[in-house]
């Protein structure tokens, strides 16, 4: 393996205990495929079962000896790294908002969605910070934006973390399942505020904006970078799809984003991280089986590291040689959200804030109504002359007590927390807008 080249792979493994189909077989196949590859860094999402992580770790230990599993929430963050380079630091930032405790089927609140990262000691780049994240899923693609308020909060927090890292002098890469298509507002927030560039877009500059009518689903994978909801995926085939997924034969939800440190943007003496290839991977079936590796396809990104003068990292640098082999990739020297984006974001969060306050009133009204009915049932059971009705009273009272407790928690604790968090971020954005206007 050459240090002048960096290969990274990201894959949502769909590794939920019990619910995910063929989990053990698929994770074993994923581990085998990764061990047969030549990746320098692997980032996995939805790897929730620790024994699955240990299986992958054991399979990759000879090639990628450094690994980190991140715990979080009630069920774990489901995020893991495997690296050829030493891990000298690791951080986890749980997102302030990522679903509701009442959304049991969605499950985002229970798993503790987060932006995690490892700090790697790279022989050429120095400190390389790689983020791995799985953003909140709810809200779809059609809008309005307030439906995606939690994902917008996640995007804003991830962008801030990346920007702080780059301003601290580190090369930064972020990968994962961002649950957003490239043209969506959450992706704009991440890229605009962090200064990220998209490795797929930079290596596929001729991607058409309109889906050709003659294109097949397999062709769409490698033309549009489709990683989810593809008809070629056995777990997506046949399921109801929204308009966007139908139009493009799936969605590009998984990303490899990158940027140099802030000082490198103004220096000709810093190494250059150039994306040279980006491909959708794990598109075939598990060997010998009739199902896919996951309900997502993976994404791999290959970078060439150039030293000043245009030489690859492993070659001797000639100071007189000009960097002519690099593509015309321009990073924003002053990344940040536009005034229009800040306004849209504030409006979305404000709408979500008002909805949260309304939900609080609804949940608390259900709590007090349930409490009233429970008292009525207790009093009524004392006056009833029919013994057979008492067990029914007991069951109904138990169910109402559960409902009342749940509504008290959701209304008084969670909705207050959600509203306060949204209010804090809105105030932060107002301050940020004031600063950008002065600049």
Description:
- Residues 315-326 have low confidence and may be disordered.
- A hairpin with an 8-residue loop joins strand 3 and strand 4.
- With 439 residues, the chain is of the alpha+beta class.
- A six-stranded mixed beta sheet has the order 3-4-2-1-12-11. The chain has a six-stranded mixed beta sheet with strand order 5-6-7-8-10-9.
- It contains ten helices and twelve strands.
- Helix 1 (23-35) packs parallel to helix 2, helix 4 (149-167) runs parallel beside helix 5 and helix 9 (339-383) packs antiparallel against helix 10 (389-438).
- The longest helix has 50 residues, at 389-438.
- It has helices at 23-35, 50-60, 108-111, 149-167, 185-194, 199-203, 217-224, 243-247, 339-383, 389-438; strands spanning 5-12, 41-45, 66-70, 79-83, 87-94, 114-122, 126-134, 171-177, 197-198, 254-259, 272-281, 298-306.
- It folds into two domains: 5-336, 4-Layer Sandwich (Deoxyribonuclease I, Chain A), CATH 3.60.10; 341-438.
- The chain crosses the membrane at residues 362-386, 392-415.
- This is Endonuclease/exonuclease/phosphatase.
- It comes from Thelephora terrestris.
- It is found in: Membrane.
